[in-house]
Write a structure and sequence with these properties.
Length: 333
């Protein structure tokens, strides 16, 4: 850092601010520092910085599935905000395993992160104990449980299930089934199922839930479709836990010559990029994926700023309100 400062004829504090608070420097000065850093090959020692401040400039985030498109917008929008504030995102995947999440949380906290972001509220006792002892800002995304101590940035999964069931009932469908994720630890999908069950019973209809055995989502969707459209009580509409499952079912109907929605209506969750490109277009429910990443970052940095000021009289950010999901009606229903 001293070499960079000497090269530019500025103070070490200016170079430090370039990495920690870039917004405090003018654009012209940021460009000068960037060129000097590149020329000299300087890499800031984040471990040393963490020792000095007790926390590193790393923010940890654990999500259920890195390869799943449903979380992509949340990760990207959160990462963009983290980078803009001069921090780095350290990402881990639990693949819907509470035990793997516990291991990831223990590992991330070992790096003394500036903040920690988790997905949903389904944690092991070990994870809950670590969260209770943690002194850094904690955010749980993709969920809304206002009574929990960690702040929630998300929405109600049961309400998503209720929204899907109501849509199909209003369209005149009677034998409506729900297909769960074949990933056993996807408890949020089970909450959406519970919302569906609630509405079905309110309307005097028998819920019908199916759990695929196939692990690959498209194959699992096809398996569920073929199982649910046979017999005297064949489903005339199917809600899938996510768009991956629903797209597998929809592609299977094309191969088998099954009319959608003539013989069976199909509905997903997530509004993936391909959902509107399918034939017919897939009716789905769009979660506020990008908004969750943006809001989570805003809350974290507001709380970090308040901690940095070390002033009890400084206003603290308010606990966020639940975000809304959007029903996207297309040809499949």
């Amino acid at each position: 850092m001293r070499d960079v400062a000497s090269h530019l004829g500025v103070s070490q504090i200016t170079v430090s601010r370039y990495f920690q608070e870039p917004a405090r420097l003018s654009e012209a000065l940021r460009e000068r520092v960037a060129r000097a850093v590149a020329e000299l090959g300087y890499v800031p020692n984040l471990v040393a910085g963490g020792l000095a401040s007790a926390h590193s400039r790393v923010i940890g985030m654990v999500i259920p599935n890195i390869s799943g498109p449903i979380f992509a917008a949340t990760i990207q929008s959160f990462s963009d905000a983290v980078t803009a504030h001069g921090y780095q995102l350290l990402l881990a995947s639990s693949y819907f395993s509470a035990e793997q999440e516990e291991s990831a949380v223990r590992g991330l906290l070992g790096w003394s992160p500036a903040a920690l972001v988790l997905t949903s509220h389904f944690h092991t006792r070990g994870t809950e104990a670590m969260l209770a002892r943690a002194t850094v800002p904690l955010i749980e995304t993709w969920d809304y449980q206002p009574r929990r101590k960690p702040w929630q940035v998300g929405f109600s999964h049961p309400e998503v299930g209720r929204m899907a069931a109501r849509h199909l009932i209003e369209r005149g469908y009677r034998r409506i089934a729900f297909v769960q994720n074949s990933a056993a630890g996807d408890f949020s999908a089970m909450e959406r199922r519970d919302g569906y069950v609630e509405v079905m019973r309110e309307h005097g209809r028998e819920p019908r839930c199916f759990v695929p055995q196939e692990t690959q989502p498209a194959h699992a969707g096809r398996e569920a479709l073929l199982a649910l459209i046979e017999g005297d009580q064949a489903a005339d509409a199917i809600i899938f836990a996510n768009d991956n499952l629903a797209s597998g079912a929809l592609l299977a109907t094309l191969r088998a010559g099954i009319a959608v929605p003539g013989r069976v209506a199909l509905m997903g969750f997530g509004d993936y990029l391909f959902s509107e490109m399918l034939t017919p277009g897939l009716t789905t429910i769009r979660p506020p994926a990008r908004e969750m990443g943006v809001l989570a970052a805003e809350l974290i940095f507001a709380r970090l700023d308040a901690q940095a000021e070390n002033a009890e009289r400084a206003p603290s950010p308010r606990r966020p309100k639940p975000l809304a999901c959007e029903l996207i009606v297309r040809e499949s229903t």
